[in-house]
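pls read this protein.

:::
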Amino acid sequence: GFGTSACGICGRTRIQDVIARVPAATGDHNYDPDWLASLPAKLRVSQGLFESTGGVHAAGAWAPGKDVVAVREDVGRHNALDKLVGALSARSRLPATGMVCAVSGRASFELVQKAAVAGFDALIAVGAPSTLAVETAREAGMILCGFAGESGINCYSEASRLGL
């Protein structure tokens, strides 16, 4: 299963027990770094609730060369991603192989774990990834990028798949 919406580390005694639960990525797609860097702006345009409140996070899914597949918002970053995965499941779009997930906040280990379990090829974040998030993405063979925006993007794992 996908686990809980709480901390993915809570109750674990060894970090290896947590990392071992993350499946290896199955996608082998290459991505244009400029397109990946544009996703946070595209995500922001789709955030109707944020527009009204200014206080929610978002997670969105894109297939390369296509419009957004789905966007979900919530006060919690983790809950926004959970809602996105649920929406994709309801549409029979899981695993999300060949899709990219963009999130409005930083890239924590738990978000990388959830995105990997859902089958996304990449997780693109507006903010920084944690060290454990980077390690987990590398173990899974998943693209992980942070600080994505108009000024570019930083890639922390699988940079060769971006031509970097």
User: Anything to note?
Assistant: The helical segments are 15-19, 33-45, 48-53, 77-90, 109-118, 131-140. The beta strands are 57-62, 68-74, 100-103, 122-125, 143-149, 152-157. The radius of gyration is 14 Å.
